[in-house]
Here is the input.
Amino acid sequence: MLNYLSILLYLSSSSLASILPRWSPPIVRLPYATYQGYHNESSGLDVFLGVRYAASTEGQNRWREAQPPIDQSNDGILNATVYPKQCPQATAGGIISAAQYDPLQSVDSEDCLFVNIYAPPNAKNLPVLVWIHGGGWDHNSAREFDPTPLINYSNNSFISVIIQYRLGAFGFLQSPLMLKDNGLNVGITDARASLKWVQKYIGLFGGDKDKVTIWGQSSGGGTILHLLAAQAENQERMNENLWKNVVMSSPYLVPMGKCDSRYWQNQFNNFSTAANCSSSANTLECLRNTTTDALKILSHQFDTILQPGHPSAYEPCIEGEGGYLISNTAERLKNGKIPNSYIIGGSNFNDGSSFVSTTLTPPNNFTNISAEADVRLENFLINSFPLSRGSQDVQRILDLYPLNQFIDNHARGAEIFQDVIFACPVDWTLDKTQNGWRYLYAVKDAIHARDNAYEFPYFYNSLSPYSPTLYASYIAPIISLITSDSPNSLQSLQPVNDPTWPIYSNKGEYKVLNVTVANISSSYISQNQPQIGTEERCDFWAQVRIDNGW
Here is the structure.
C-alpha cells in the first residue's frame, strides 16, 4: 500500500511540476511587436520561434524586396513558442518526405519571413550566429536546424538566429520586370533583410550586433557567396557591416547568367503562360493577383523543368546596374573585393557524387570505353554548364580531368561538378582574405550534406555515425571563430592533439576531418589533394565563368 501511495504522490507532484513551470517565460518587446517565447529547462536556453523580420510576401509583395514588419504593437503579447509556417516548398525535403509532399501542404505559407532565436537567459552582448539553411533554393526551413547542441557545447557563450527566406518560384523566378521593385533574387535579398534586422534588434535579445557570424551550407553557403560579392559593390553596402565572421560549408555556386538572358526569359514566359498571365497587359501584376495555391503548384512543376546549361531550375542571376547582384559573383570572388571577414570555408570529399548520374560510366562491352566516356562526359558538361559542344573549353576539360586519374567516368564527372560548384568557389574566396581557414570533410561516404549530421544533429543525426571527438574537432573551432574570430582559441573544447588550423593562404594548407575505424577523430593538416580543387583546375574554371558571364 505504501508503494502505491508513493507512486500516486510521485505522479501528483510530477503533474504539478508540469503545470507550474519553474521559469517564467521570456518576453522581448520590439518596436513593432511583443513576443513571448519559452525557457527550455533541458538546454537552459530561452527560445523564441517565429519572430517576424519582414511583412508577408503574398500579393503585391511578391517579387518585391522584403518589406518592413507590420505594426503589431497593439496586438498584445504574441506567441513565439511554435514554429512558424515555412516558405512554400517547390519539392520534398527537410521535414516532408517525398511520400508526404504536397505543394499545397498547410505547413507552407507566403507569410514566412521569420527567424527563430535561441539565447541563454539574461544574455548581454553575446556573439551571434546567423544560420542560412541550404536546400537547393527550393526546399527546407528553419525548423530542421536547431542550434541547441552548438550553443550548449560552447557553454552557452553565444546566441543563434535561424532565418527563413523565399524559395522556388517565389524566391527565384526572374524577369527584368521585377527590377524596379528590387524583386530579382529575393531569396538572396531576404537573407540580407534578416541580417539588417539582426543589426537593429538582436541587442534586445542580448546579442552584440558587432559580433555576428553568418554560416550557410549548400545553397545557404551559396547565398553567403552572393552576399559577399554584392555587399562589396559599393561603399554604402560595405558600411552596413552586417557580419564579422563567415562559415561556408560546401557553398553552392551554380551558373548565373544575366537576368534578361534568353534562359530566364523563357522560364518566366513559360511560367506566366501556365499561370494564364501571358496575355495580360501587365504580366507581373497578373502573377501577383494569382492565388497562392496556383503558384505553389507551378513552383513545384517548374522545379523539374531543367534547361541546358543549368543544373537546377531556381538560381540567382546577374541583375546589372540598379540591382543587388550587379555583377558575376564568380568574377567578384576571383578578381574583385569582398568585405573584410574572418572566414572558415570547406567542402566535402565527394560533394559532386550525388549530382552526377552513374550512366556517365559506359558498360564494359564498349570496344573503346575511353572514347565513349569522353562522349558521355561532353553531354554531361553541355547539359550542366553553359558550354558548347566541341569547344576549346570542353577539350581543355577533357585534358584537365583525364579518365585514367579516376576509378570510372562517374567519379570523373563528380570531381568536375564539385570543383565548379563547391570546391573552387571556396578557394577563390579564401584567396581574397588573410584570415581564412579551409577544411575538407571526409567522414563516411562524405557526399554532399553529410556534414549536417554534426552541424545540426537533432534532425540530421542519421546521416553519419556520431563521434564525440570528431564533433569536437569540427564544431569547437567554429565556436571559437564565433566567439573569438579565430578557430584556434578554444583548445579546451577540442580533442587532445587536435591540430592547430593554419591560415589557408600561407601554403594552401587545410584541415581534413575524418575518423578512425574506431570512430575516433583523426583530423590532420594536408595540402594539394585534388578533392579541394587544384590551382590549375580552379584557375581554368574561374576564367571560363568570367569569360562567359556565369
